[in-house]
Structure formats: C-alpha cells, structure tokens
C-alpha cells in the first residue's frame, strides 16, 4: 500500500472550497481512489458531489454517455473516451468541473501502442473538455496512486486558473 500526499489532498480541497467550484469524478483504472482522497478531508461534501466508477465499458456507455463508436475506434484508454467520460459525469452531477481517468494499471492489458502505465485524464468545465496522457512506472498500486495524485494536481491547476 502506498502513502498519498496529504499536503496535495488538503491543497486540492482548500482550492475547491475557496473557489466555490463543485467537482464530480469518473474513474476507471483508479477504482474510486480519487474520490476517496477528495473525501478524506472533513467538509468535502461542500465541493465533491460524487463520482462514477466506470470500470466496465457498459457503465461508460450507459451512464456516462461514451459512445460505442468511441470505444470501438479508440478504446477505453484514450483521449476520446476520457473526454466523453468527463463531459458525461459533469452533466450527470451538475458540477462546475469534472475529472475523468482511464488507464492500464497492469500487470496485464498493455500493448505496444498503450503499455502498462498509460493513463489518460480529462477535465471538463463550462468552456469545454481538455485531456492529457501520462505514463507511470511501477506495479498496479503505484500506478493507481500516481494516477490519483496526478488527478489532484490537475484539479488544483484547473481551479487555480
């Protein structure tokens, strides 16, 4: 088990609270870890509305609105998928901003095009959706924790704009 960056968690909560923004999450490879970290701060219900753990593609399509065409053409681990996940959860939860993540935590499931450790993130707000791609090294737990902390950093950056 990995320790998380408590300072980053508190900073994220403080920035969200002070901004007045609300946030929702759509998580795949992190399995709810981002939501867990966001709710580890007392009072987080003031800004964290909730999240969807969309580990299965059916949840991505039926709840978050990811199209079957997107999954067939680009896969669940792609810019296109996380953008639709972020837009879908923002609309579903009526949040100011949203964050979505999908990746390959391993140890299996990688390919030459998308090796284990490939993780896509998307942030949605009233101006649209942006996505980024990262590569993380380590075992499954390390990739999940690095992904969750990266997500918090992306949230801080978006809120601090």
Q: How many H/I helical runs?
A: 6
Regions with little confidence, pLDDT below 50 for 5+ residues = none
Mean pLDDT: 96
Q: Find the CATH topology.
A: Maf protein
Descriptive report:
- There is one protein chain.
- The protein is α/β, with parallel strands linked by helices and 161 residues long.
- The protein has helices spanning 6-19, 33-38, 57-62, 68-74, 79-93, 140-160, and strands spanning 23-27, 48-53, 97-103, 118-125, 128-135.
- It is built from 6 helices and 5 strands; from the N terminus they run H-E-H-E-H-H-H-E-E-E-H.
- Strands 2-1-3-4-5 form a 5-stranded mixed sheet, sandwiched between helices.
- Helix 1 (6-19) runs parallel beside helix 6 (140-160).
- The N and C termini lie far apart (33 Å).
- The mean pLDDT is 96.
């Amino acid at each position: 088990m990995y320790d998380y960056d408590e300072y980053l968690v508190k900073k994220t909560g403080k920035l969200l609270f002070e901004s007045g923004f609300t946030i929702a999450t759509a998580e795949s490879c992190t399995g709810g870890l981002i939501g867990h970290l966001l709710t580890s701060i007392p009072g987080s219900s003031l800004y964290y509305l909730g999240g969807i753990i969309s580990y299965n593609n059916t949840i991505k399509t039926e709840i978050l609105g990811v199209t079957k065409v997107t999954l067939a053409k680009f896969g669940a681990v792609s810019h296109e998928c996380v953008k639709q996940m972020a837009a879908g959860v923002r609309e579903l939860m009526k949040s100011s901003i949203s964050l979505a993540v999908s990746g390959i935590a391993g140890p299996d499931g990688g390919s030459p095009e998308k090796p284990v450790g490939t993780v896509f993130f998307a942030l949605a707000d009233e101006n649209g959706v942006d996505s980024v791609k990262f590569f993380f090294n380590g075992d499954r737990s390390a990739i999940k924790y690095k992904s969750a902390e990266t997500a918090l950093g992306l949230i801080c950056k978006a809120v601090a704009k």
